[in-house]
Every structure is written in structure tokens, then in C-alpha cells.
Amino acid sequence: MGTTLKYLFSSLCTMLILSGALCQAQELTIITEELAPFNFTAHGKLTGSSVQVVEEILRRLGRTERIQSMTWARGYKLALTKPNTVLFSTTRIPEREDLFHWVGPLNTVKIGFYALSSSNVRPKTLDDARRVGAIATYKDDVREQLLLGLGFTNLDSSKSPLSNLKKLLAGRVNLWIFDNIGIILVTRQMGIEQKAVELVLPFGEFSQYIAFSRQTPLSIVRQWQETLDGMKADGTFQRISRRWLPEESIPAGRDTGTGRINPAERMRIFTEDSPPGNYLENGKPMGLSVEIVQEILFRLRRPESIEVVPWARGYRLAMSEPNVALFSTTRLSQREDKFRWVGPLYSQMWGFYARKGSGVRIRNLADARNIARIGTYHKDAKKQYLEALGFNNLISSNINISNVKHLMKAEIDLWVSSDFNVAYLSRQAGVDPERLELAYPFREVYNFIAFSLSTPEAVVDEWQAVLDAIVADGTYGIICDKYDYVPHAALVP
User: Fold this and answer.
1) What distances in angstroms separate CA 32 from CA 216, 229, 471, one per listed residue?
2) Inside any domain, residue 11
3) Fewer CB in 10 Å around end: N or C, the chain?
4) In angstroms, how far is CA 90 from the centroid of its own chain?
């Protein structure tokens, strides 16, 4: 290689190194807003579909900046005026095209006008919408900007989507412009059924991106886009997005079909009749655990349904058959290696229950061993636990509520149950829970979804990731409130 050529080659290498170093040296201000499930704070930590995608981009680029959360109006102003500012999730529309550099897309949402289902407000055109009394909008949000650009003068702006829903419910506005994803979580946050509001006029479908201020070097923008493209190519983007979003909202990238369920990989999902976690009502599975599992299935777009079976049968199938999920299964040391685990779903305190006024008193497990007859549920975790401790005074029943009846007839002296379901089971047996008393509590445990060992590890990991997202975005808390269950601190990060 000649001297001149060596010099040119050396200079080119130096330029490339300096260019990469310069990209990394540029400190970025990274901003998002509070808008679940895309970006929001849960228990002091930012999370959501877009947050986790951006965090993965930062990790792959070796960047150390932290994401800041602030009001949308303030973040938008900073992205317009301050160099090296990143704002997400930002809807990309023609009016904004030249205001930012763009990386994405992150997701797709369908925007429309929502009205109370009980109202008679049913606009058929935008002109009809212009003539209603008031339309709730989110301050400086793309939906508000679009309507202002279309000449709407009847907008009632708020600083949060929750405020907009409150206005709609109170009759202070006639319509609310929002999207098909946000509506699910905001109605849950308000504790109302989603069907209480109705999409009455679709407005359009839009994609959300990461927006960079115009003064940001294009080399940085290209790095981010290439990294996002790489995440889509290797499936990471799809795996993150499916934890939070329905399939139709995840942009098509280089995904080659990840997430489609092969018939051979379909799960059989079993639970038992044991309220309030899982039970049958009018032939349909219901309960706290059932709703959590149904939410996981919905987010993963899995086609399986839940079947209620006797616990012993479900346990046997989960032990012996491939691709079986069984809930709510107490996680014990003697069961640890028999299943793969996703959870926890809830906690409970086990105890010995007596008929009030029976005179049966115990102070510890040793006293309980001397009791003549203790009613238990066949194949139940409490029975297995006590058997492992050497109890030989257990009387097993295939129907748990039979134990309540046996207890009231003095056919057993104690019944093993838990604070989570003792009142429900008593009522199911036709017995007032006040007629029972806790003789001795002996162990706090956590209930999980148990997967047969042959279930692919990737499937189990995906279920756990989605459950974590359900806890983080507040959906778990809303389901718990519905069943008057206060989660143990360990269940909420």
C-alpha cells in the first residue's frame, strides 16, 4: 500500500472512530409522558411498551441517559426548541413532519370520538361533531391539534385522559376524542366497564414514533433507527410490544410470524371451582385469577380458553401431559421441580378452622396432630404440606365445600382452609362464615400458574413478562379491587 493510500485509509478510519465517538458524546434529553400502556410510571419506575423499547435501544447503543417523565405540553415544547431532545411516543402526522426527525414506528392506534353508551349523541360526520356542545381533548395532544387544524371551536382541553373521562361521565362534555388502546386502561382506572362508552365516529389510524429535535445530529437518528430495525428483525420488538398491546397495534416490521400459535403448541388451561380465585358462574369461568389469566391470553392474542375441572384431574394432567397450565397453584418446595411457574397471582394465609362454640383449641401444629379428624381437599397443597409434616389424621374430600358441611355436623373437628377463600366456600356450602372461627393460622403462601415441565421455556417467560406488565400498568390492582382483595406488598413492585 502506497504512502498516500495509507494516509487516506488512516484518515478515513480516524473519521469513522471520531464520528462514532461524537454520536456517543452528544448527551440526549429523553422525555416521555404519562400515558399507559405506552409510557407511564408504576411504583416509582417508568415502564410501558414504548419505554421498554427505548430502554432496549439505549442498552444496545451503550447509552446511559435516563428517561424523564413530564407533561406532554412541556415535553413537546422542549423537543421543538432544545437541541438533542428525544420525545416519545409522538404521533407522526403531516403537520409535524418537518418539526422533528423520526424513528419508528412504535405502534399504531385508531382514533375516534367516544360517547356515553347511554346517551343519544351519535355524530355521523365531522360537521355533526363540530355542532355538539363540547368535545373533551388532551392538552397539546395530536388529537387536539388535528381538531384545531380542522376548525373545531368546541374543544374542552384537560391535562389528563382521566379528567376527560370524568367530564364525559358527568355530562360536562358530549364527546371525547381518544384511541382504542388508551380507552381500555382509562376505563379500568375509573372502575367502569369499557362498554359504558362507545366509539360513535372513527377519526383515523395513526402511528407513534420517537421524535428527535431538528438540531439532533442525523448520525444519532440513524443509529437509533438501525437499532430499532435490528430489534424488529430479531423479534425483540415484537416480544416487548405483545406484553402491552393487541396484535393489530404492533407495526409490521421484519417479523416473520413470531407470535402465531402453532396448533401443536396450543395450551390446555385448567382451573378449579374455588372462589374467589376461580369458579363457575352461569357456566362461565370467573374470579380474580381467571380474569388475570384471561388478560394474559388477550394480550398475547392466544386462542385458548379456560376449562374448570376437579382439582385432582387438573393436577394430574399438569403433571403428565405436555403444554398444560393449571391455576391457581400454590408454590411449595415439594412442587418446585414438578412445574414451571408464572406468578404470583395472590397470597393467602392457611389455617385450621373450627365450628364456633365447638371448644376445639390448638396453639401449634403439634396440638393439631393430636386432633382426631381434620378435613382436607384431595390433592390440595395444604393437604400435601401437612402430610409432608407427618399428619396422619387427615380426612380427604373430592369436594371442598363438603368439609364445611362435615364440620357443621361435627363429623370432623377442624377444616384446613385459607383466609382467601374460607368465606366464599362457606357461603357456597350454605353456611354463614360467622359460624366458623380460625383456630390456628400456620403458613402464608403464594399462588401461581403452574405449567407442565414440557411447556417451552419461551412460552413461560412470555407469560411472566405479560403478567409483570399487567401488574405494572395497574390492571392487576383494578382486578383485585373488583374482588375486594388487598394484594400483599410482595406482589406489587
Assistant:
1) 17, 21, 20
2) no
3) N
4) 22
